[in-house]
Amino acid sequence: MTFISRRIEEASWIRFLVSFVFLFAYSYWAFIRPGFWTRANEAAAPLPETLQGFHEGEPTRAFAMLGEATSDYLIFQAVDIPFAFLNALMITAAVALGLKTLKLAATPLRFLLLLPLILFATEIIEDALLFLMAADYIPDTGAPAKAQQVMTNIKGASGMLGSVCALAAIIGAAIASLIRLFRKPA
């Protein structure tokens, strides 16, 4: 797979740090400061994209509670796409760096680099479904709601597993880099 090979070849601490800083800054802008997400979340928490599992009556309950915050929620679905991209980029950079630094590029662990792709793809589909349901283009019950919940669950699983792998990869890469730095030449 050329995607995997390229990500590992191009992996570097700079690439990881830049992706981390961009993700952190965007996350603050999109989720922490008062804005689209905070207003929608205050109106209808918990929002459908935050719920793991299959909840009867979701997302209908949340959409009914949004009220005037519906436009904020619709805008947020578009704002969420760059977040998904940056999240996938950071996880990719971290895992690739770990694989490269720990010399694990030829092992089956390289397929962990597929997790961010799954995360990004399911986030896009989930955002589209939520937008269409909240805007009343498609029903917020039945098959569309189940499809959204499936995407949310896959997104959550791939995101959590990807984040844990990214953290482990960065810790491993940091330890390996420090050992190489302080190792006495033979």
Q: What would your notes on this structure say?
A:
The chain is an all-alpha fold and 186 residues long. The chain contains 7 helices and no strands. The protein has one domain. The chain has helices spanning 2-9, 13-32, 36-44, 60-66, 70-101, 115-134, 142-182. The longest helix is centred in the C-terminal third of the chain and has 41 residues, at 142-182. The radius of gyration is 19 Å and the shape is elongated. It starts with a helix and ends with a helix.
N- to C-terminal distance: 36 Å
Low-confidence stretches: none
**Beta-strand residue percentage:** under 5%
The structural class is: mainly alpha
> What's the Cα radius of gyration?
19 Å
What number of domains? Answer: 1
Query: In sequence order, what are the helices and strands, one letter per element?
Result: HHHHHHH
Oligomer: single chain
Mean pLDDT: 94
Portion in helices: over 70%
Number of strands: 0
* Main beta-sheet strand count, sense and barrel state: none
Globular, elongated, flat, extended or rod-shaped: what is the shape? elongated
Q: What's the quick description here?
A:
This protein has 186 residues and is mainly α.
Layout of secondary structure:
Blueprint: H1 2-9, H2 13-32, H3 36-44, H4 60-66, H5 70-101, H6 115-134, H7 142-182
Helix pairs in contact: 1-5, 2-5, 3-4, 3-5, 5-6, 5-7, 6-7
